[in-house]
Every structure is written in structure tokens, then in C-alpha cells.
Amino acid sequence: MTLGPWGLFIDGTFRPAVSGRTFQIENPKNGSTIAEVAEGATEDIEIAIIAAERAFPVWSALTGAERADIMHCAAEVLRRRLPDLVSLEVDQIGRPRREMAAQLARLPEWFAYFGAVARTHEDTVPPFAGNYLNYTRRVPLGVVGHVTPWNHPLLILTKKVAPSLASGNTMVVKPSELAPVTPLLLGEILKEAGVPDGVYNVVPGFGGTAGLALSSHPRVRKIDLTGGTETGKAVASIAGRNLVKVAAELGGKAAVIAFPDNDIDRTVAATLFASFIAAGQTCVQGARLLVHRSIHDEVVAELIRRTGEIRLGDPQLEATQMGPLVSKKQRDLVETYIRIGQEEGATLAFGGSRPEEVAFADGYYLLPTIFTDVKPDMRIAQEEIFGPVVCVMPFDTEEEAIAIANGTEFGLATSIWTRDVARAHRVAHRLQSGIVWINDHHRIDPASPWGGFKMSGIGRENGLVAYEEYTQIQNIIVNLSDAVFDWYADDDQPKRYS
Ligand code: NDP
After folding, report:
1. Backbone phi, then psi, for 23, in 5-degree steps?
2. Known active-site residue 344
3. Could you tell me if the CB of 207 is within 6 A of ligand 1?
4. 3-state SS of 435-461?
5. Sign of CA dihedral 97, 33, 327, 459
6. Which of 162, 330, 334, 378 could form a disulfide with 114 if both were Cys (CB 3.0 to 4.6 A apart)?
């Protein structure tokens, strides 16, 4: 069944693109079309920005508590609509139902958390200075632009929408061309919750047209992009010309560091979870397993055995543990890296090919893949593959593990696996990594800042810092004295102005 055609969501209603053009959304499990969506471009972005500008005075004038009430309502409506959203996300991107259900069930927490921030974090008042009252206000930016990827269509969008709403901004979203349906549906949900028309607008389309028009628009006050590092650089430089704020959540090459006191089963379970969830298509995927040489061979043997048990299948079925990759283009890219790895001399210890079952023939399936004998400077150990491929590398000392973990241009996330508390913190403090998990991986929370060092990005999602990054500070200095301050008078008053 094909859904749609879905319009652009502008000013609280679905409408066709000015050009009348549409594009199709494909189900990666079999290449069928699941939806037809209006294709927005420059003129549509302009219309959406005008709608968001009109809505800004109304939305920003509400008190934080009033916005919080609407956001709590949004959390409730979202909870009610979860079954539909889960099914649609599975169809759009091919991630197994069990993963999407677990991920989307947490989305209401973002609206609840940032609603609470809106209620409690309005103005801050530093101490008096002499006969002065000196205080600051956090003022919303205006119209902000969100450009989002396909791999977690709703989660990543929610991480941007919730703090934008809480701080009083209005917004225009350019979702991934591969997964625009659930971001459009979020428009309906927010409207039902009481978000005024024009506050949240969605213009599906392509990066080079709609994405570029949004990122380069002089009246957009912040661009918040999640995507690849090259896209991040391009968008940041375009937006920089208008001196607008930029947040960029970009690529990664996360390491899973397993010290020898970590038992074999836990190391293997950690790696499977870190490396293969979402068929490895996450920015914090455990792309590199750094394992102490004393347990390396045992870990590899067990990792191969357990990887062979991962159940590939139809992502809509509860039993499926790994679905297809999101698109033909993505699978081609991952297969190219698998060839590169072999040419570089790494050992293909498991996978590396498509599953043979006929049922998978029309989808973009790929077996989970393990490379051993990987050297830290190989391309497969340096570049983001964004697929179900893990590169195993042994290390001998803590120092060496840290050097390998830090030895890429990325710096998004790392997990450390050890029972030694002192070692865990010591290593964490030396990692060039915006997120460090100790004996865990992939955990995310609306209150915990999320973002990368180095080429993994700038700015942070989640937590108070995300709310603050969606505001600008206004400082108000009040002279409480009634005395006349006359700079030019020849009297004996102290002449200070700073
Ligand atoms: P892309 O960089 O290809 O695209 C991201 C978004 O940017 C899409 O909406 C895309 O449009 C748009 N876009 C592309 N080019 C431009 C342009 N010139 N101007 C404006 N917008 C543009 O990333 P993917 O969608 O392939 O997502 C995967 C990437 O995202 C990986 O590198 C991954 O690491 C990263 N990521 C980072 C996360 C983090 O938290 N740090 C989380 C999740 C993913 P279109 O859809 O048409 O391509």
C-alpha cells in the first residue's frame, strides 16, 4: 500500500509543493514504494519560513509554563500514536520493529524533560552589584532550521524540536529524503497537542535544494544539522556567511575498549550491541573493537559464533534481529569498504556478503561483518563505514588502547569495558570523545549532553546546554539610584562608567 501523497506541513496544514512535484519513499526490505511525498524546494522553504516568522511572536510570548503544558500534552499524544509511528519508521528505514519500538517509546521523555526546563529555567539573576540590579534573560532566537538524517528519523528530530519549542523558537524542518513521513506526522501530533499553526513546519525534499535553501536563508537564526561530516562542513560554511548559530552532529568511528578483566561473554555481548544494532547505521556504532591481546583470540572466536546467530529478516516481524540497510546506495558503500578492507590486508573473519536466502533478494540486506588483523591506520579503521562492520584490533597496554581510540579524525563516542573503577575514569579522562560510556554503549537520555569532539561536530543536543544553545542572552542593567549621574559636571562625584 502506498501512503499519500503527503503534502509539505506548513502553517498547520498539508499542502502540495509549489512545483507540484512529488517523490517516492522506498521500503528497503523489498524496494517497494511505501509513500509519495511532496518535494519541497527553495520557494517552499520561503513560504515555511514566513509561516514560522508569523507564529514566532505568539509562541515566544507564552510563558515557559504555558509552553510546558503544551509540551506535556505533546508527550501524551505522541505516546498514543506510537504504534503507527513504529510501523512507519520500520517501513521507511528497515530497522527491526523490536529496536524501533524500544527507541520510540522513549520520545515522550524529550517533551517532558524540555517542558520541565521551560517551566523552571526562565530568567537567571546574578548577584546585585552595588546600587545596581544586573540580570540576564534567555531570549529565543526566532526561526530555526533543522536538517535531519535518515537513520533515526524521529529520535534525532525530537532532540532538536523539544528544546526549540521549550525555548520559544519556531522552526522549519528539512527531513532526510529517505524518511520524511514520520517527521510530517509529528506535525499532526504537535497540532493536536495545541502547538499553534506555523510553529512547526516540514518541507521534505533534497539536500542540494530544500536543505541548501534552508541553511543559506538569511532570516533563519540557527541551523541544527545531523548528518555526515562533509555535509556538516558545507552547511556550517554556508550558514556562517549569515553569522547564524550552527550546531552539527556529525560522523563517528566509536571504539569499544575491552580490558582483560572484562569477561569474554560480556565483551562479546557488548560488541554485538554496539556494532550491529540498526545494522550498524548509527553515528556511535562500535566500529572498532579494541581488545586486550590476552583475551583477543577467545573474544574473536565467540564473537564470530554469536554473530552467526543474528537473525536477519523482515523488519516488521518481532523475531527479526537485523533488517536491511536503508538503501541500495548505502549497501553499495558498505560493500565498497568491505572490498577495501580485504585489499588492505585485513582478514574477513565473518560475513562480508549478502545473505543467500531468496526472501532477501529484493532488499538491501548484508551479513554482519567482522574484520580481524586490522591495523589502526587502515581506511576501514579510520573512515566512517556506517554499516554492520566491526574492525577488531588487539592492544597490549592502556596507553596503546587510548592512542588507537583517539587516532581518528572523529571524536563522538567510546565505550570502556572494565571492572577497574580507577582505570575506567583514568582512561575516560584521556579520550577525545564527547560521550564516554563505562560498561555500556548507545545509552542516551534527554538530560545528558550529546555531541562530538573534533570532526564529529559542534554544539550539543540534550540537557540544559541544548536549551541554552537555542536561546540568546539579553543582559539588563538597572541603575537603582535616583541621583543624577553627570559625566560632564565639574564636581567631586566618582566618574566611573565601567
Ligand atoms: P547526510 O549528510 O547525507 O544528510 C543529512 C541531511 O543533510 C539530509 O537531510 C540531507 O538531505 C541534508 N543535506 C545534504 N547535503 C546538504 C547540503 N549541501 N545543504 C543542506 N542540507 C544537505 O547524512 P545521512 O542522512 O546519510 O546520515 C548519516 C550520517 O549522519 C552519518 O555520517 C552519521 O554519522 C551522521 N549522524 C550523526 C549523529 C550524531 O548524533 N552525531 C546521529 C546520526 C547520524 P538528503 O536527505 O537529500 O540527503
Report:
1. -140, 165
2. no
3. yes
4. EEEECCCCCCCCCCCECCCHHHEECCE
5. negative
6. 162
Q: Which of 398, 418, 437 is nearest to 286 (CA)?
A: 437
Strand order through the sheet with 13-15: 13-15, 8-10, 200-202, 170-174, 143-147, 222-226, 245-249, 457-458
Map grid coordinates 569498504 to a residue. 337
Residue 260 maps to which CATH number?
A: 3.40.309.10
**CATH number of the domain to which 228 belongs:** 3.40.605.10
Residue whose CA is closest, atom 42 of ligand 1?
Answer: 283
Region for 473 from its dihedrals, namely left if φ exceeds 0, alpha if ψ lies in -120 to 50, beta otherwise:
beta
Number of domains in the chain: 2
Q: Which atom of ligand 1 is nearest to the CA of 283?
A: 34
- Looking at the fold, whether 338 and 194 belong to one and the same domain comes out as no
Mutate to test the pocket of ligand 1, among 147, 230, 231, 442 (most ligand atoms within 8 A of CB): 231
Show the cell assigned to 1: 500500500
176 within ligand 1 shell (Cβ under 6 A):
yes
Can you read off the three cell numbers belonging to residue 89? 519508521
Return the number of other C-beta atoms located less than 10 Å from residue 491's C-beta. Answer: 7
| Structural domain includes residue 175 | yes
Cell 543559506 sits at which residue?
Answer: 216
245: CB partners within 8 A, 6+ apart:
141, 221, 222, 223, 459, 469
Q: Do 191 and 179 contact (CB within 8 A), yes or no?
A: no
Q: What is the mean pLDDT of residues 105-129?
A: 85
Q: How far apart are CA 92 and CA 497, in angstroms?
A: 61
Same domain, 296 and 381: yes
187 located within any domain: yes
Cα of 254 vs its chain's centroid, Å: 15
The C-alpha atoms of residue 77 and residue 60 are separated, in whole angstroms, by 22
**Which of the residue ranges 272-276, 312-316, 358-362 would you say has the lowest mean pLDDT?**
358-362
**Per-residue pLDDT tens over the stretch 440-467:** 999 999 999 999 999 999 999 999 999 9
Condensed to tens digits (0 to 9), the pLDDT of residues 198-242 reads 999 999 999 999 999 999 999 999 999 999 999 999 999 999 999
Report the C-alpha gap between 481 and 478 in whole angstroms.
9
Distance CA 407, CA 250 (A): 17
Q: Give the structural domain span for 142.
A: 3-250+456-476
Residue whose Cα lies nearest atom 1 of ligand 1: it is: 227
Q: How far is CA 276 from CA 131, 368, 408, 439, 468, in A?
A: 62, 7, 21, 17, 34
Catalytic residue from among 39, 335, 461, 469: 461
From the CA of 415, how far away is ligand 1's center (Å)?
24
Per the structure block, which three cell numbers stand in for 401?
588502547
